Amino acid sequence: MFDEETAVAWKAVPPDAVVVAGDGTELGTVEEILGDEEEDIFHGIALKRAEDREPVEVPAGRITKMTMEHVVTDLTPDEAKALPAYRKR
User: Fold this and answer.
1) What strands, in cross-sheet order, belong to the sheet with 41-49?
2) How confident is the model at residue 3 (pLDDT cuts 50, 70, 90)?
3) Using 50, 70 and 90 to split pLDDT, how confident is the model at 19?
4) What are the structural domain ranges in the chain?
5) Which of 66, 59, 54 is nearest to 20 (CA)?
6) Are 64 and 72 within 8 A, CB to CB?
7) CATH number of 10-81
């Protein structure tokens, strides 16, 4: 999915990139990239869900590709609805 888009490093993903489920369904947008820049460790993203604008946390292990336009996950839309709320650390 989104094979025509070039993958980028986690630090290059722009704010408000569109986040999609494994089937291509739009889930929302990137609220924040979660990671430790000093250690270069990517933890995941805070996703602002399209349906309720609530920020939820998507762990790095559920993200399959990041580009300048999209963050692709292996989540289903139902799994995205059940994600835990994001609490800024």
Assistant:
1) 55-59, 41-49, 26-36, 18-20, 70-73, 63-66
2) confident
3) very high
4) 10-81
5) 66
6) yes
7) 2.30.30.240
